[in-house]
Amino acid sequence: MTLGERVSKFVIEARCTDNILFSGAMAVGGFVLVMQSFPIFMNNWVFLTEPRGINKTNENGEQLESTFHYNTGYFQICRVHINNNSGIIYDEMEIPPSESEYKCYLNPLLSQVDLTDISLASLAVIIRLGSPALLHVTGALVCCFAFFLGVVGHIRSSFYTLFSSITYICGSIILCIAVLMVVCVVDDELAPRMKPNAAGEPSKFSYTYGPPFFSSALSFIPVQICACLHAFLYFRRYPSVVEKLKFVPGLEAKLRRAQLDKELGIPPLESFRRGSLASYLPIPSFSQGSRRNSRRSSQASFSNPSLLFMQDV
Fold this sequence. Notes:
The protein is α+β, with helices and mostly antiparallel strands. It folds into 2 domains: 1-237, Butyryl-CoA Dehydrogenase, subunit A, domain 3 (Up-down Bundle), CATH 1.20.140.150; 241-312, no CATH class. It is 51% helix and 12% strand. It has helices at residues 3-13, 18-37, 97-100, 108-111, 121-127, 130-156, 160-190, 211-218, 220-235, 241-244, 251-263, 288-303; strands at residues 46-57, 63-72, 76-81, 103-106, 206-209. Strands 4-3-2-1-5 form a 5-stranded antiparallel beta sheet.
């Protein structure tokens, strides 16, 4: 038997007990926290290419430019000089080692240092990343709180399990807003600069997104898996329809309406699809005598909701 067949057999024969589902939820939740937390402190969210003036002029006395590469995060901006594609290598007089070597600078919003000599486009991007950074930290903390609620809810078998599912979704929405704001900031700052100039020459500006960006964006998928697992764990504690009536808003009214439709002979709609809660209710015959009796029974069932399920016992 091959390894794939063994794994398939193990998955098929495994029993989805509460402990197994909880272990899976915790494993996926821990993976989510890593995907969301580590990018906060990384400085390679966006890789940018930007031309900057150097200490050299051409025959017309105009200052020459060379290409610098930047990588930007929430808290740092780093720069390194890269020789252009023409093969020209500048000496230390034209580009000092202090400018050509890889060096990182703290976000000016935190350091209060003027970095206009270092960059323009990258500096504009990192300054506007303050709001996305705040939302990212908030979303990660909310998901961390959801992870804690899931643990407490499983240990105590309480409603914290359901709250964990809801909190996971809220945290992921906040984080998605932060990622979308990063996209808007980068596109707003770089798109105008990447257009060809008046002479038709291509722009020297360019950018690509780094691993932290994709890690944060893709974390939305495992977050939804966590939310589904915790919600499934919570609802498994209430297997019958009568028990679900206690905490599902609007379920009792929906079941009463379904019972009335069945008793009056109204054709079933989408609510009677296989697996829906309305399918738990019996469908009576639609003769004239049964309809008169069904109207009487419906009045009794509305006065006492527990009678809706007596026919299932």
